[in-house]
Give the backbone structure.
Amino acid sequence: MQSWGLSDPGSVRKQNQDAYRIEQLDRSTLLCVVCDGMGGAKSGNIASTLAVEVFTEEVRRAWTPKMDQDKVDQMLRSAVKLANFTVYDQSAQFTEFDGMGTTLVAAFIRGKTVTIVNVGDSRAYAVDEGGITQVTKDHSLVQLMVDRGDLSPEAAKTYPGKNYITRAIGTEPTVLCDIFHRELNKGDYLLLCTDGLSNLMDDQEILFEVVHGVIKKHCCKRLLAIAKTRGAPDNVTSVLILI
């Protein structure tokens, strides 16, 4: 298993409010986390950094090699709960952090079994030579409208309220997360990214760069370069895992 990550402010914003972490728990177990902070220049980066650190450290504290799948799910939910409490508590205590929050998408990879947890609109994609699948489902206004049939998936890409998310870490005392399970094969990929990337590239473009790019360790750099050629108005973060 190999992994690479990259985070960049993009072409417009001076501050990077994204954060990510890749944590090798043992030879066959990997944890990857990506967060996209919100709340303005004073606090967006605080929210994302806090969430990444608290989530990762809680998983590291609770994880044991012999955990069954139910215990893994419980561990990830507990880590989300603790990250949410920590960000929310800081927001409540300090006026300069009022209203801050962050998305979170994380992958716990044990061998070929992947458990993904998400809150917000940062995404996880499963990629192989046969195609690309968006594993997570955005917690966003436009996704709700698509689900109701009020908006087509194509129209959702340019809808004015696209950036409004319906769930976030730290904006409320409690938060719900989604859990997804995937079985991947050797040679398959998992990509985690913030909307600074997914808003600018469609699925087939991502598929091409991941599968057909010659030097895999440079894939995140190539994705960032494409985002920048398209203006990169937001921070851009991606983590790529090769099973």
About this structure: The chain has a mean pLDDT of 94. Residues 11 and 232 are 5 Å apart (CA to CA).
